[in-house]
Specification:
With 192 residues, the protein is mainly beta. The termini are far apart.
Length: 192
C-alpha cells in the first residue's frame, strides 16, 4: 500500500499494482473526482489504446479526444481499421458505423437542431435513408435516389397532424401525393 504524495506509475506497479492515491497519466495534476485520470496526447489526441493480446500492433479500442476536444471512442477491426465511432458532435451524442475499409459512414445516429436524426448510407457513401424530427416536433422519413442527392419518397406528419406520403420522379418533380385532409378524408394527387 502506497500512501502520501508519492506514486509514479512505476512506484505503484512495484508496490503491487494498487494505491490509495489518485493516479494521473499525461499531466502533473490529478482529478479529485476520478481515481485514475488520463490526459490525451497533445499531438495525436489518444488517451487509452487497447490491443488484443495476440496482436499488439493494431489498436482494437481507442479512447481519445477529437480535434474539437470532444470525447471519442473508436472500436476497430482486428487490422486496426475503424468500425464504430461514438463521439460528441456540437455537444450532442453521435454514433456511426463504417464500411470494411473504415473510410465511409454506413449508419449515423445523432441529432440536428430539431432532435434525433438517423441516416443510412450505401457502400459508396451515398445517403439512402434519413429519418428524424422536424422543427414542429413531427417525424419524417426520406428515401433517396442512387446518388444520394435527392429524396424520391418522403413520409411526414403535416401541420394538422395528418400523415402524408410524397413520391417524386427522376426529375425531382412530385408525381404522387397521398395525405389526409383536416376532415380526415383521403386525398390522392397524381401528376401525368
Amino acid at each position: 500500500d502506497l500512501t502520501g504524495t508519492c506514486c509514479t506509475l512505476q512506484q505503484t506497479t512495484s508496490a503491487g499494482s494498487w494505491t490509495t492515491n489518485n493516479v494521473t497519466f499525461g499531466s502533473s495534476t490529478s482529478s479529485t473526482y476520478c481515481p485514475v485520470t488520463v490526459v490525451t496526447h497533445s499531438t495525436h489526441d489518444n488517451g487509452i489504446c487497447i490491443y488484443d493480446y495476440n496482436d499488439t500492433s493494431n489498436k482494437i479500442i481507442e479512447l481519445s479526444s477529437s480535434p474539437t476536444e470532444d470525447g471519442l471512442v473508436k472500436v476497430n477491426a482486428t487490422d486496426g481499421t475503424p468500425s464504430v465511432e461514438l463521439y460528441s458532435e456540437s455537444s450532442k451524442g453521435a454514433f456511426k458505423t463504417l464500411n470494411a475499409a473504415g473510410d465511409k459512414t454506413l449508419t449515423y445516429l445523432g441529432s440536428n437542431t430539431n432532435g434525433g436524426l438517423s441516416k443510412v448510407f450505401d457502400i459508396s457513401g451515398n445517403k439512402s435513408l434519413e429519418g428524424g424530427s422536424d422543427a414542429n416536433h413531427r417525424g419524417f422519413s426520406k428515401l433517396y435516389n442512387a446518388a444520394g442527392t435527392q429524396a424520391r419518397v418522403k413520409i411526414e406528419i403535416t401541420s394538422d397532424d395528418m400523415g402524408s406520403l410524397t413520391l417524386k420522379d427522376v426529375d425531382d418533380v412530385e408525381s404522387i401525393k397521398l395525405y389526409s385532409d383536416s376532415s380526415k378524408n383521403a386525398i390522392i394527387e397524381a401528376t401525368n
